[in-house]
Design a protein that fits this description.
The chain is mainly alpha-helical. The chain has 2 domains: 133 residues, no CATH class; 94 residues. It has 11 helices and 2 strands. It has a two-stranded antiparallel sheet with strand order 1-2. Strand 1 and strand 2 form a beta hairpin.
């Protein structure tokens, strides 16, 4: 999967030195996006700036690694680039090529992918070129153009994510990278089942094989009691209150648990454990700040509406 990422000619730093730098960066205050103040609230100027900063931090990490670390962590780094790939397709669909340029500025995607995304032409043509590039790579995106024809960018997104998880364990070899991926699959599966239980949606097609818990695509949607057992298994025991089974409250609980588990593993002497934990830390920090941004904007809009009544 390293071939799908930017080819880096830098030698990088010794793993032990990189581990010390990562621990220093985690302890340092996070750089903040520009802010504005309105109605007594403070919020980010642009949510995209938060995710751009996260992409830049992943890029920094990638450039510091030596070749062995880049190979071991390529599956995790590629997962972090999937949202960039999908966001670019959405921006092209909406006629925003300038936004695509911004998205790709700090992206780790291979230069060949960036060149395809920079083409000025119909999106169907661009998707076709992407399929031809990816078809012989680790993702093997056979049928991407057909998925776009049937379901638009959303169809592309479903196929890209599904094919990633179908292929990733062929290329993930380090035990820490495999643990990271299996834990991520567990989180996504528990959330999928929570949505099925809450809203009676049939989303079993979104289940992913390969997690620690052993949820499979063919499994039946559980009852609330069954879902509670799955949540307890994910968090390693203890009781999961029924109120926390609502997807809106359950998602931060699962993310917090996984962040705690990642932090514990980062304390080991294994550089892959430290780097993989930091990749999650970058994502989790951006997700939290993005949530704060949206909550602040909602508060400002709500205050404006009530004052105008």
């Amino acid at each position: 999967m390293l071939g799908l990422l930017h080819k880096c000619t830098r030698a990088g730093y010794p793993p032990d030195y990189l581990v010390s730098r990562i621990r220093g960066r985690i302890g340092a205050p996070a750089a903040r996006a520009p802010i504005t103040r309105a109605g007594g609230y403070t919020f980010r100027e642009d949510d995209a700036a938060i995710w751009d900063a996260a992409a830049a931090e992943r890029q920094w990490l990638y450039l510091q690694m030596d070749d062995r670390l880049r190979k071991d962590l390529a599956p995790l780094l590629l997962y972090g680039e999937l949202p960039t790939l999908i966001r670019c397709l959405r921006n092209l669909e909406a006629g925003r090529p300038d936004a695509v340029e911004v998205d790709l500025a700090a992206s780790l995607l291979a230069d060949e992918v960036k060149k395809i995304m920079a083409i000025h032409g119909p999106l169907a043509e661009i998707v076709g070129k992407l399929e031809r590039f990816f078809v012989d790579t680790a993702l093997g995106l056979h049928g991407l153009a057909a998925a776009y024809g049937e379901g638009g960018v959303h169809g592309c997104e479903e196929l890209i994510r599904r094919r990633y998880f179908e292929q990733v364990f062929i290329f993930a070899g380090h035990p820490e990278a495999i643990w990271w991926l299996r834990s991520l699959i567990d989180l996504r599966n528990v959330m999928t089942l929570a949505k099925c239980v809450r809203w009676k949606e049939s989303e079993r097609s979104m289940l992913i094989d390969g997690g620690h818990i052993g949820i499979r695509k063919r499994d039946q949607v559980p009852s609330e009691a069954g879902l509670e057992k799955l949540v307890r298994r994910f968090v390693g025991g203890g009781r999961a209150p029924s109120s926390d089974l609502h997807p809106v409250s359950l998602e931060p609980l699962l993310h917090d648990h996984l962040s705690t588990a990642m932090t514990r593993r980062m304390r080991s002497v294994c550089p892959v454990a430290c780097c993989s934990g930091y990749i999650w830390h970058i994502f989790a920090s951006a997700r939290k700040r993005s949530g704060e941004h949206h909550a602040a904007r909602f508060a400002v809009n709500f205050q404006g509406q009530t004052e105008g009544e």
